[in-house]
Batch of 2 targets.
Target 1
Amino acid sequence: EDQVTQSPEALRLQEGESSSLNCSYTVSGLRGLFWYRQDPGKGPEFLFTLYSAGEEKEKERLKATLTKKESFLHITAPKPEDSATYLCGVNPGTYKYIFGTGTRLKVLA
Amino acid sequence: DAEITQSPRHKITETGRQVTLACHQTWNHNNMFWYRQDLGHGLRLIHYSYGVQDTNKGEVSDGYSVSRSNTEDLPLTLESAASSQTSVYFCASSESLTANEQFFGPGTRLTVL
């Protein structure tokens, strides 16, 4: 069964305190692992898609990496405006996208 | 600017009533999706469409239907609303399925009493 698990469920960081969010997955045929950011009361906003193990992508303070079993979203020197829920998901090749339950990140000033 | 809108933003209805949630996009995307988001479950796919007259069932399609008569709109209908359908509903569209980049609407919060 295709599945995505994100950890931790919630994370509190001090401003400038770098950390990583984890997304582990089991999927029959991966056609992409993606990350979205979701602010309270809004729809998710696309960040990255990764397609193969070893691939990395960066956007401002965020860097996403991918292995054969998991992806990490590294947040370097976070700021309060990085506070959001980060969603990970996979495209198992059928375009029936599967999302994890998300990590709620709070960055304190 | 192109956008994707949903209406209403909030809806309260009673068990057994038919409810239709609207989704309209001006991106001219062929691919459109409906999701529901619940605590502990994340986003789950309800229905999706690859183009006009095309509709497909997702993971949690029971009790829901969609129709695609033009490129811009994909309304979601709850035939007979149930309390288990209380949720936040998101519509999304995408240009390329392989790029995995979807543009989401602002969501509709539906409460079924």
Target 2
Amino acid sequence: GAGVSQTPSNKVTEKGKYVELRCDPISGHTALYWYRQSLGQGPEFLIYFQGTGAADDSGLPNDRFFAVRPEGSVSTLKIQRTERGDSAVYLCASSRFQGTPLHFGNGTRLTVT
Amino acid sequence: QKEVEQNSGPLSVPEGAIASLNCTYSDRGSQSFFWYRQYSGKSPELIMSIYSNGDKEDGRFTAQLNKASQYVSLLIRDSQPSDSATYLCAVNIQGGGNKLTFGTGTQLKVEL
């Protein structure tokens, strides 16, 4: 079946603006994860959903970041008052159940100017 | 100390040789270990998972886990230029819920 889908693939925004990044997981996968990856680094955990609820949001850097998954499928990562330091590739991953391997989407490259 | 550590490389090996990639982790209670391959500009792709001590083989890839030494490795036999990529070690840290913690990755270059 189709893999994890992320839109947009690229997003350029001005400092201070609001952005939304969308993730459509693999059908039937109950767990959904958001990671952020900067150049030369490994993916950094942001938040994890099991179903509709955020099971672990300990990786969100501050209150400008928020994510939702209202129907237990598609998720949106929302960033308010963007800063240049938010520039990175935002990766979404899903897994069939808790503890099973993660499958990543192609990411959204966010550039804040 | 970082939770998951890898040598950033680059690790250069000639075509046909064995590439050995290493990873150490800090939490002794960790249970699940994964290797991901990431080509430049692409997303990570799962290539191996390992959960118990010893070796696990899949084609040209062998993952090795030693929980006593808190060490996991990936061997790539008969390395090909198409294996050139960054290899990310990921660990499910005990007490970390179900999230994976990644190392910074090791860049592998397979030279003709």
